[in-house]
Amino acid sequence: MDLSKVTVRPIAPSEAERYQQLLERHHYLGAIPKIGQTLRYVAQYGQSYVALLSFSASSLKCGARDRWIGWDARVQYGRLKLIANNSRFLILPDWHQPNLGSKVLALCQRRLPGDWLERFGHPLLLLETFVDPQRFHGTVYRAANWTCVGLTQGFRRTAAGYSAAPQSPKQVFVRALHPRARQRLSQPILDPRDHTEEKPKMTLTAQQLRALPQSFQAIGDPRRAAGRRHPLRAVLAIAVGATLCGMRGYKAIGQWAQGLGQKGAQRIGCRRDPDTREYLIPSVSVIREVLMRVDPEALDRSLGAWNALWAARDRSLAIDGKTLRGATDEQGSQVHVMSAVGHESRAAYTQKKSPP
User: Fold this and answer.
1) pLDDT digits (tens, 9 = 90+) for 35-90
2) How far is the C-alpha of 239 from the C-alpha of 269, rounded, in Å?
3) How are strands ordered across the β-sheet holding 147-151?
4) Contact, 10 vs 3, CB < 8 A?
5) Which residue, among 68, 64, 227, has the nearest Cα to 151 in the 3D structure?
6) How far, in Å, CA of 119 to CA of 99, rounded?
7) Contacts 24+ apart (CB under 8 A), 178-183
8) Residue 28 pLDDT more than 80?
9) Which of 16, 108, 206, 285 has its Cα between 20 and 30 A from that of 229?
10) Beta-strand runs (E) in the chain
11) Distance CA 136, CA 145 (A)
């Protein structure tokens, strides 16, 4: 087989059904749905399909990868789109030739950054993939200059959060698409070339989740005592945590809360049912009622106290002003708000109403 005649290209829309059928038939994990930012490729030898590849959104959490990058949890969520996951790689039957796998990977790596930038409007800096050591040794990835950075813990993401028990840990392989990929991903201030034109987001560590409800203990509960099921501090912690993680609107906050799982609900201070021993997540209506009734000044002070614990690494502040549409003060004047925001954490240190 003349490897110089192997080519790689994105699949055409008319090929999608055939692509999925081949994956379902020959890949041990089956086909994969096209969710979010995804590019699918086919490698050809002449007119024949020889391999299929899929690159999609990166893993939300991967300790081995995150330690290798060295980035801070406060900034990683907003930068995950600079990483793509090689979610499928299949060499089709009858085409298992020496060096074909590494050749296909190299060709795909060469064109993927340009295709991704053209399709989604932002660059790629790093590729990742997971290899099951019970089935494979990662030989193809090593031959294509990928680096094994460790093992996963074996947990997998489910609709309810994460699996309760670990399964087979996977080898984590990464491939930098830029010589300074690690530095660009981990630096406190993101390079303007790497911005994805999205609202600032962050991830919350277990310690930060536990600290959130503690910060709201001094706030008085505005709700009636009758029928009050969920602690105020837990409801506020959910609303704030979801907003910090990029959620916008009550429905999105409620969906984020449901994705916490039992461990997350415990950390954030949710009430535990005495009969089932399960932690109860407040509904969207409960979250809405609390946010509409809570004292905004008390909430702002509590958020400032929490922020003081976790935003100490900010080296500079940005001052920004906003006019709140449709909002007026006691004198009937339109409300203007000035905010001080940390460059590195992108967190608001304080907000103050200013005269028009």
Assistant:
1) 778 999 999 999 999 999 999 989 888 999 999 999 987 778 888 999 999 999 99
2) 13
3) 6-10, 39-45, 48-57, 83-91, 126-131, 171-176, 147-151
4) no
5) 64
6) 30
7) 178/125, 181/125, 181/126, 182/68, 182/69, 182/70
8) yes
9) 206
10) 6-10, 39-45, 48-57, 83-91, 126-131, 147-151, 157-158, 161-162, 171-176, 317-328, 334-342, 348-354
11) 17
Q: How far apart are CA 219 and CA 221, in angstroms?
A: 6
What gap in Å lies between CA 274 and CA 314, rounded to an integer? 43
Evaluated on CA atoms 306, 261, 276, 223, the torsion sign reads positive
Per-residue pLDDT at 161: 47
- What 209-213 contacts at long range (C-beta under 8 Å, 24+ apart), as own/partner pairs, is 209/237, 209/241, 209/264, 209/267, 209/268, 210/267, 210/268, 211/306, 211/309, 211/310, 212/236, 212/237, 212/240, 212/241, 212/268, 212/306, 213/237, 213/268, 213/269
CA 81 vs CA 149, 173, 259: distances in Å: 20, 17, 20
Question: What is the tens place of the pLDDT at every residue in 138-181?
Answer: 999 999 999 999 998 876 655 444 555 567 899 999 999 999 99
Nearest Cα to Cα of residue 334 among 346, 345, 344, 322: 322
Helix (H) / strand (E) element for 275: namely: none
Identify whether the C-beta of residue 300 lies closer than 8 Å to the C-beta of residue 264. no
Tokens in use for 314?
């900010």
Are residues 272 and 253 in contact, defined by beta-carbon separation less than 8 angstroms? Answer: no
- The contacts of residue 179 (CB under 8 Å, 6+ apart) are none
Cβ 129 vs Cβ 146: under 8 Å? yes
